[in-house]
Prior knowledge:
This protein is α+β, with helices and mostly antiparallel strands.
Amino acid sequence: MAPNKSKARAVEDEAALPQTRSNEELNLSVIRRHYPQVAAIHYVAPYSVLYAYMLETSQWEKVGIEGSLFVCELVPSQIGVERFAVILLNRRGLDNFFNEITGPEHIDFGEFIMMQSDQVYGLWIFSEPHSSTANVPAEIQAKLEELAARAKASREAKEREIESGMTEAEQVEASVPMGRQVSLRELFGQRPTVAAAVVHAHNNSHPAALPGGQADVLGQLFMKAKQDYNGLG
């Protein structure tokens, strides 16, 4: 007859066994390997494809990054501002997409998600009617709108706190604009047409030219936006 293990030994053996982790914990562990500053995951879209607006050709083109899309909360800034980001983990290569959400003026929605960063990006979100993904675009839009508003409100609140402790001369100096970043609505006035071009490009797997001469207009607007952003306009 085999000897019985002591109760203490049994507890030790049980503690040594790997603990089952939830999908949320596994996702967070994977994301943190790439981006240690991630504090929490607010939403996951199973599949997304990244496009970029190319200034040289005035076209939307695939970037070669596609996979699961994560809407994440980051650790706060040094002064306590709430921070959030969109992360697209690439199934096709080593380059992922990371874009911090700074406010509603730098993100727009239609048939896809358009985000302004170092350039303008479009995120196509997969969904299928009558399936578990049917509501993903609407749900991720609601979450991004919420977090964009939170990020802006948190930043403005901290700015007010800092300004309240500044002298009048310091406030005047801080108020001098260093180059204005225009919003996506200013940059892309004809959002539905642009969105349709991106969806067309995804369905046909090649760059989409914007119709009716709009590409030239958007190219000029984008150049003006970059000049304004850099303080050259």
